[in-house]
Amino acid sequence: MTDLDALGTFYLGAVVDDGFERTPEPLMYDASDLTTHAVIVGMTGSGKTGLGVGLIEEAALDGIPVLVVDPKGDMGNLALRFPDLAAQDFAPWIDPREAEREGTDMSVYAEGVASRWREGLASWGQGPDRIERLKGSADVTVYTPGSTAGTPLSVLSSFAPPPAAVMEDAEALAEKLANTTASLLALVGRDADPLGREHLLISTVLDASWREGQELSLAALVRAVQEPPVARLGVMDLETVFPSPERTKLALALNALLASPSFAAWTLGQPLDLQEILYGRDGKPRIAVITISHLSDAERTFFLTLLFSEVVAWTRSLTGTTSLRALVYVDELFGIMPPVAEPPTKRPLLTLLKQARAFGVGLALSTQNPVDLDYKALSNAGTWFIGRLQTDRDRQRLLDGLRSAVGGTDVAALGATISSLPKRTFVVRSVHRSEPVVFQTRWAMSYLAGPLSRQQIGRLAAAGLAAESTMSAEQGRVPAEGPRSTIAAGTPRPIARSEAAPTAPADVSRPVLPPHLPEVFLPPAPGEESVRYFPFLLGVADVYYHSQTHGVDEERRVALRLEPVEGPSPVEWSRAEAVAVDLDGALGGPLPGSAFAPLAAVPLGPKDVKGWQELFERWLRTEGALRLFRDPATKLTAQASESEKEFRLRCAQAARELRDEAIARLRSRYASRLDTVERRMLREEQAVSREQQQFQARAASVAGNVIGAIFGGRRSLSTTLNKASTGVKDFGDVQRAKERLEDARRQYADLESELQAELEALEAGTVRPEAIQLEEVVVRPTTRDIAVRFFGVAWVPHVQVGGRWTESRSSPR
Predict the structure, then answer these.
(1) Do 170 and 139 lie in a common domain?
(2) CA–CA separation, 427 vs 8, rounded Å?
(3) Per-residue burial over 17-26, b = 16 or more CB atoms within 10 Å of its CB, e = otherwise
(4) Which pick of 35, 235, 547, 727 has the fewest CB atoms within 10 Å?
(5) What does pTM read for this prediction?
(6) How far apart are CA 719 and CA 665, in angstroms?
């Protein structure tokens, strides 16, 4: 018996015989094969959606997050997982017209659907426990960009500077600029030609903004198109290449987006951040279904270009791996990657096909239109799932592409097989398999209710079937409680601006500080001239953290500030707040005409100030030590800049890689032993056959001789009896051969059981990211590791807002 939940393998269905009848042999697909990508091709009704859902379900069971692009609205069905398989669970998602066509009421019809699902799952060896495990393995969130029906996605973050890994890679930056510009131009119906002047201008504006580290809003982009930050495009004057009146027309087209009420939905919700989309706050993997069925063609092109570009940028930020880390599933490729045209969506998808495999990101691309695929591009795919095709032209086009994509294919034989495939039956041709295999897809664990309406998508979270968004559509980004930071867990809590604003009875003139107490004036926000300065005690030090055991070797600047208070303990660094201070940017004095809040009545003698500084340094050596997470299982230690969620994901990926390596070693170790016993079984089967043939021949000879002996006299009877005794010996040889065969079979079964037991032991040791048991390690600096750069009073500018003094926005926090 094959373990349907074997580590690192996906249970997709069962192998069929020459008559397309299902056999007991399951079709198990190696998860790592998906790193070389897969293509699913089949006409409407071929069972393509069921295969895709099965593939996604298996990935989720293995702890792999999945990004699903859903052009038709079918893939929201992944949220319909009902472990109880009760009629009342199915009823809300059944079209009432189905019950009407059957001439029965909904309750009876729902019970029939539930019964059919129970029986279907059971026939494929699946039960409620497997659905429960699927539900616990990954949450499902249905995103609706440009709409608030589900969880909205904000695209404005796409105009923010990309990650440092992209900014430092000239090729990656050029591609990001080209894709972002092309998507925006496609949305407003303009030419997205990379050599066109509109494309050149917008990409130049974005490039200039990103290199300055500035986030460009759409409104700022409109203004920048009218008044660009450059005087030339290439070597020619801007006005020559793109005169002002023509730029105004482009600005008007972009401005129309801002003025359109429908565009407001694109600015709401969760930012287009792959790390946040694919993983929950605790690192739990997610099935992220992005439904675009409600979008126009231009909006689809705009959004998908941005989405695929974000996937490229995210992929490049990862470390290399041979294990599957994430799956990107596109449910319909039509119009996204055509053979001749070059829509903006094609370029980033081609990049993913060529480069994503090195980072463990697999693509599964599905379509029902073989003639609309760029097979030259899809030659990067290592696995092809081929179902029923509608026309001979479709089959021929597919075979032509397959010939170049998967070498060594008998195209004629494959074509004959494809032409007669029944529903839910596919040919899988892979570079990882020596021969094509024909199989029938298993029963999906998710209820396939068909395309979901906007109202049904909205009901998913309410019904508790889809994970609620971590973002609020009205508020945009919501501060997440999130996991505890791995960096300096003892650092005092940053406080809100309203809390930071101290109060004072009245303004005073600038206080005079003693010479042993330095002071700095922090700059206010640009344009703010009427400010009030509040005094804070500020300590700034460069701290060196080093631990050879945990691989830590880092220097960082630590700045703490607090308000001294009257009393026996005027300075307690445990209630200080961590801030970022640019000492080089501090002002030499206050702004003219500024007001000052008074200093607290605390002692400011040399011994007092020195004591406060010594307490500051002591805090850095104790509570301010660098606290990092460590995973005992993988022996990994978090990097100083790594959040708990990021570290959990890295540990989970490392554990998956170790698991895959252990499985490969285990299978390799047993393979030779199983092969030896299998050869023995073959020899014993041949021996049994040979002994049986000899016995049967001897028995026939004896039977003939018995008749002859009756009429042939004493000598003939003696000879016959001798041959009969030899026949008895032959019968014994047959029995002994059968015993040896049974012994070989038992030995083979025992080896398989041992292998399965060891695989189950490995599976028992597999831990989800959110369940990894982390321990804390502390890296404490010594006195020699601390260099105080400033200790004194920082005058922090505040402005009056709504009758309350609030810290000026430019003051670093």
Answers:
(1) no
(2) 21
(3) eeeeeeeeeb
(4) 235
(5) 0.74
(6) 61
